[in-house]
C-alpha cells in the first residue's frame, strides 16, 4: 500500500504540497522529504502500478487501460489525417510514476546544445554544465562500456542495456556504412546510431514511482495519496500567494494548506490546465469561461511536440515478431522493448552545426504488418479503412518499421480549457506543419530519404529488406517517391512522438511567452513553482523522461536553497 488515507482527514497543513507523482513529482517528493522536519504531501490522480503495467512487453497495451488519461488532439488539418476523426492520440500516464508508468522506457537525455540554448534564452543555471550533475545524481547505470563522465551508479534510477536484435544490429551497421558511427547518445556526441538504454530493473519497468517513492514510502513525513483529483490551487487574490489545494478523494472534497510552497508537477498537459482553473492564464480566455483571472500569463500558449512519420514499413526475410507470452515466463537476460529496438540521430540541412541532430530514426519491431499489427493500429488510432486498404495484406509477412521523427519543430501549438469544470479535458491544438516556411515537412522528407539510403546498404541486404511501396491512401495522384508524394503521405500518417513540452514555458521576465522564471517560480504568484516537462522552453533532441527527472532533481535543490 502506497498511501494512508486516514492521515489526510486529520492533517490539514503541510510544509509542501506536490501535485502529481510523475517523472519530476516523484523526485521532488523524495528529495524534500529527506529533510525530516518538513512535512510533504504528494497527491496523485491515478493509482499504483501493477505487475501487468510493469511488464515491458505490455507497453503497447497500456494506453487502453485506466493508467492513461486518454487525451486526443482536436481534429488536425495537416497531420493525423489517416487517424480516427483526424485526431492524434496523446497518451499520458495517470498512475504513480505518471507517464513513466506507461512510456516506452527509453533513457535519452538529448543534446548538450539543447541545454546551452535553453540557458542562452535567458535562463541561467540550465546549461549543459549546470544540468549534467543532476542527470548523474539520479542515475544507477547498469550499462556495459559506459563512459564514467556521463554515467554514474548509485542513484535511485536504474538505467539498463536492452536486448538488441539482429535487425537492430544491422541498422547500426547500415548507419556505419553511411558514415554514422555507433554512439552513446547521452554523451557529448549525439550524431550516430545507438542501442537503447532503458529504465528497466530486473526485467521490469522501473518508473519514477518504483525508483524514487518505493524506497522512501515509510518516511513519516511523506504522505502519498493516490486517486486524489486536484481541481484547484488556492491563491490569495490580495497577496497573490499560493496557500493550498482543493481535491476530490472518494467523492469528497478536501482542502489542504501549504506553509511553504505548492509544487505543480502534474505534467505538460495537466499543469497548465490546473493553472488556468486556478485563475492563472490568458485573461480573456479565463473570463470567457467564467473563471476570475488572478494573474494574466500565457499558460498553454506555447506547445511543441515531436512529430513522427509511421508509414515506412519494410518487408524482410527474417522473423522480427515479438513473443509476448514469453515475456511472462522469465525475466532473465536483457529485456527487449516492444516499441523501439535501436535509434539513430542525424543532421540534415536544417542546422549549420552538423553535431546537432534534427531527425531521430527508430527501428520499430511492432508494425502494421506484424502479427500484433492490430495493436499498433489501435495505439496510433489508424482508421480501419486505411489499415485494410494498405496493410491487411502484410498480416502474415515479416516486417519492421523504420520511422523518422522531427526533433526541432518550427510549428507551435496551443491548448485551451473546454470549460471551468476540472473533469472536462482541455482542447489541444498541435498545429502540426503550420510553420510558414514548411521547414518541418522538408526536414522529415530528408529523414525519409535517409531511411531509403539505409535500406540499400550491404548491412540490410542479407535480410532482403525492402520498403513496402504501396501508395498511401489519398496520395495515389502523386508520383511515388516524389517530394510531392511524401508531402501528402506525411499528412496522412504522421502522428505524435508523444513528447509534448513548453506549455508553461521558462523564460526571463521580458519574454512575453514565459510562465516561470529560471527558478521554476510562476511569475507574479508567490510560493508556487512548476516542476515538470511543461517548463522546457525549446524542443529537445531526445526523449522527455530523463530531462524531466533532471528538472525534478534541480527543483528540489532550488527549493531547499530557498528554505534551508
TrEMBL record:
Q: Which cofactor does it need?
A: FAD
Pfam families reported in the protein's UniProt record: GMC_oxred_C, GMC_oxred_N
The UniProt GO MF terms for this protein read: flavin adenine dinucleotide binding; oxidoreductase activity, acting on CH-OH group of donors
Q: Which segments constitute the Glucose-methanol-choline oxidoreductase N-terminal domain? A: 93-116
Q: Where is the active site?
A: 499, 543
Is Flavoprotein included in the keywords of this UniProt record?
Answer: yes
Keywords of this entry: FAD, Flavoprotein
Name it: Glucose-methanol-choline oxidoreductase N-terminal domain-containing protein
Organism name: Pyrocoelia pectoralis
Amino acid at each position: 500500500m502506497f498511501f494512508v488515507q486516514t492521515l489526510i482527514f486529520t492533517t490539514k497543513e503541510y510544509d509542501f504540497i506536490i501535485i502529481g507523482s510523475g517523472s519530476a513529482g516523484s523526485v521532488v517528493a523524495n528529495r524534500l522529504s529527506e529533510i525530516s522536519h518538513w512535512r510533504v504531501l504528494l497527491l496523485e490522480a491515478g493509482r499504483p502500478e501493477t505487475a501487468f503495467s510493469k511488464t515491458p512487453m505490455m507497453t503497447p497495451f497500456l494506453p487502453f487501460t485506466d493508467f492513461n488519461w486518454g487525451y486526443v488532439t482536436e481534429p488536425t488539418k495537416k497531420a493525423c489525417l489517416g487517424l480516427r476523426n483526424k485526431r492524434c492520440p496523446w497518451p499520458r500516464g495517470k498512475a504513480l510514476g505518471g507517464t513513466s508508468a506507461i512510456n516506452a522506457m527509453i533513457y535519452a537525455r538529448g543534446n548538450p546544445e539543447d541545454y546551452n540554448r535553453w540557458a542562452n534564452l535567458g535562463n541561467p543555471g540550465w546549461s549543459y554544465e549546470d544540468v549534467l550533475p543532476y542527470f548523474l545524481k539520479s542515475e544507477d547505470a547498469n550499462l556495459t562500456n559506459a563512459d564514467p563522465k556521463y554515467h554514474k551508479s548509485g542513484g535511485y534510477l536504474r538505467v539498463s542495456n536492452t536486448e538488441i536484435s539482429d535487425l537492430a544490429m544491422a541498422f547500426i551497421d547500415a548507419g556505419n556504412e553511411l558514415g554514422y558511427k555507433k554512439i552513446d547518445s547521452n554523451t557529448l556526441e549525439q550524431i550516430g546510431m545507438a542501442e537503447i538504454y532503458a529504465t528497466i530493473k530486473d526485467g521490469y519497468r522501473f518508473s519514477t514511482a518504483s525508483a524514487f517513492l518505493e524506497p522512501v514510502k515509510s518516511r513519516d513525513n511523506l504522505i502519498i495519496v493516490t486517486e486524489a483529483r486536484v481541481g484547484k490551487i488556492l491563491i490569495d487574490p490580495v497577496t497573490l500567494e499560493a496557500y493550498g489545494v482543493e481535491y476530490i478523494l472518494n467523492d469528497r472534497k478536501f482542502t489542504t494548506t501549504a506553509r511553504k510552497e505548492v509544487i505543480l508537477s502534474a505534467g505538460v498537459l495537466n499543469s497548465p490546465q490546473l493553472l488556468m482553473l486556478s485563475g492563472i492564464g490568458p485573461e480573456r480566455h479565463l473570463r470567457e469561461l467564467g473563471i476570475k483571472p488572478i494573474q494574466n500569463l500565457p499558460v498553454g500558449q506555447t506547445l511543441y511536440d515531436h512529430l513522427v512519420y509511421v508509414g515506412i514499413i519494410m518487408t524482410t526475410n527474417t522473423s522480427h515478431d515479438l513473443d509476448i507470452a514469453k515475456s511472462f515466463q522469465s525475466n532473465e537476460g536483457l529485456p527487449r522493448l516492444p516499441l523501439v529496438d535501436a535509434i539513430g540521430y542525424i543532421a540534415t540541412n536544417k542546422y549549420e552545426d552538423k553535431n546537432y541532430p534534427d531527425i531521430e530514426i527508430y527501428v520499430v519491431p511492432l508494425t502494421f504488418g506484424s502479427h500484433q499489427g492490430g495493436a499498433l493500429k489501435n495505439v496510433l488510432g489508424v482508421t480501419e479503412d486505411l489499415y485494410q486498404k494498405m496493410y491487411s495484406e502484410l498480416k502474415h509477412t515479416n516486417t519492421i518499421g523504420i520511422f523518422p521523427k522531427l526533433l526541432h519543430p518550427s510549428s507551435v501549438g496551443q491548448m485551451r480549457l473546454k470549460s471551468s469544470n476540472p473533469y472536462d479535458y482541455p482542447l489541444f491544438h498541435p498545429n502540426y506543419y503550420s510553420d510558414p516556411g514548411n521547414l518541418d515537412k522538408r526536414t522529415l522528407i530528408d529523414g525519409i530519404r535517409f531511411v531509403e539510403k539505409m535500406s540499400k546498404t550491404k548491412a540490410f541486404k542479407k535480410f532482403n529488406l525492402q520498403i513496402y511501396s504501396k501508395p498511401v491512401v489519398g496520395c495515389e495522384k502523386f508520383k511515388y517517391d516524389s517530394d510531392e508524394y511524401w508531402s501528402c503521405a506525411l499528412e496522412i500518417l504522421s502522428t505524435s512522438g508523444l513528447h509534448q513540452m513548453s506549455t508553461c514555458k521558462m523564460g526571463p521576465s521580458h519574454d512575453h511567452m514565459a510562465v516561470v522564471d529560471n527558478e521554476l517560480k510562476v511569475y507574479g504568484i508567490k510560493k508556487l513553482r512548476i516542476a515538470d516537462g511543461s517548463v522546457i522552453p525549446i524542443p529537445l533532441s531526445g526523449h522527455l523522461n530523463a530531462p524531466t527527472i533532471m528538472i525534478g532533481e534541480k527543483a528540489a535543490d532550488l527549493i531547499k536553497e530557498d528554505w534551508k
